[in-house]
Design a protein that fits this description.
Bound molecules: ligand AN7
Shape: globular
Number of helices: 16
CATH class of the largest domain: Alpha Beta
Order of helices and strands: HEHEHEHEHEHEHHEHEHHEHHHEHH
Largest sheet: 6 strands, mixed
Distance between the termini: 48 Å
Structural class: alpha/beta
Radius of gyration: 21 Å
Strand content: 5-15%
Helix content: 40-55%
Length: 361
């Protein structure tokens, strides 16, 4: 047997350079994001009725724990290459942590604006740890986004929300990876929808690969939380609410494109309740994949449609479904304490322990 080294993976910019529409001045800033696993979920597929193949694209395994890193590496690389000294974003948390990490690495200032309360602990801690200047405003994510758009037009500070087109260029690489792993596009793609950058990017990516390689196109099921479902209601939501704080967004910046992606693909955008989201978070964890609540929304949407009869097992027979799980469970540890049983407490006594084990806790 001979020892073999593996060529170092260099992140999505290097891997997919030929497919990305980015300026020549771009100077790569990477944490080797992307290349995330596509995990088969046969148990969950069987629970949902079976007859189809189900996979989770586990984007929580990116360097800062969310899918945002794919787009952020490109947005920061572009800003860095053109000589920007500072970047800014509004964020429900994951964008903030990602922007902070990549900006720090490039030696840029990162200013992140977060809404009042409700930013999950692991995200805020990340933004602080990576060295961002974190400003909390007394308002919603939508208020924060309006502010950063204004500031970035008035000051030399680069906007790295997904209004920045380079975010989408990087983000679409997840669609490429799925096609490469399956040898074709899946039949369905389910994912959560907040500000709608991700769904827009996936649709771009799948179309690009289909134009080049004829790999087919998925139908897209975009899922919002019922208390924050502007795209389902057809109007902005002034006071969005949901346990899935990542997608607590009432005015999605790329809402039009999300609706187009859903419609053109033959899919749809729907809403699920917080209870459905948390139930799916538990079911995913039972399969070994712990994700933050928002990340369970895509699959909760699939389960919802099956239950409501708007999707049938007949229709799904032999099909391949990919659910995008956007953020790691460790991003939002508090939700587990709030929605799941606390650990049993015992004296350090072997009899007590034995009884507890035999009782099954
Ligand atoms: C885990 O970080 O908007 O529809 O500011 O963190 O592309 O917005 C996060 C969004 C899904 C929705 N899942 O994606 C932010 C932010 C997780 C997220 C979404 C977010 P988009």
């Amino acid at each position: 047997m001979t020892f073999q080294t593996v060529p170092t993976y260099q992140g999505v910019l290097a891997r997919y350079a030929q497919y990305l529409d980015i300026p020549a001045h771009t100077r790569p800033v990477t944490l080797q994001e992307g290349n995330t696993p596509l995990i088969p979920m046969p148990g969950l597929a069987a629970e949902l009725g079976g007859g189809f193949e189900l996979f989770v694209k586990y984007e929580g395994l990116n360097p800062t724990g969310s899918f945002k890193d794919r787009g952020m590496t490109v947005a920061i690389s572009e800003a860095y290459g053109r000589g920007a000294k500072a970047v800014i974003c509004a964020s429900t948390g994951n964008t903030a942590a990602s922007a902070a990490a990549y900006a720090s690495r490039a030696g840029l200032r990162a200013v992140v604006i977060i809404p009042q309360g409700k930013v999950a602990a692991g995200k805020l801690a990340g933004a602080v740890a990576y060295g961002a200047e974190v400003i909390q405003i007394e308002g919603s994510f939508d208020d924060a986004l309006a502010l950063v758009v204004q500031i970035s037009q008035q000051q030399p500070i680069a906007l790295v929300n997904s209004l920045n087109p380079y975010r989408l260029e990087g983000q679409k690489t997840a669609a490429f990876e799925i096609c490469e792993a399956l040898g074709a596009a899946p039949d369905w793609l389910c994912l959560p929808v907040g500000n709608a950058g991700n769904i827009t990017s996936y649709w771009m990516g799948f179309r690009q690969y289909h134009d080049l390689y004829r790999l087919g196109l998925p139908r897209i099921l975009g899922v919002q939380a019922a208390g924050s479902a502007p795209l389902v209601l057809g109007r902005p939501v002034e006071h969005p609410e949901t346990v899935a704080t990542a997608i607590r967004i009432g005015r999605p910046a790329r809402g039009e494109q999300a609706l187009e992606a859903a419609e053109q693909s033959g899919g749809r955008i729907l809403a699920v309740s917080d209870e459905e989201i948390l139930a799916m978070q538990r079911r995913l964890a039972a399969g070994g994949v712990w994700v933050e609540p928002a990340s369970a929304a895509g699959l909760a949407g699939l389960a919802h449609e099956l239950l409501a009869g708007r999707l049938s097992l007949d229709e799904l027979r032999g099909r391949r479904i990919v659910a995008v799980c956007t953020g790691h469970g460790m991003k939002d540890p508090d939700i587990i304490a709030a929605s799941m049983p606390a650990p049993l407490r015992l004296e350090p006594d072997v009899r007590a322990l034995e009884q507890a084990i035999l009782r099954g806790r």
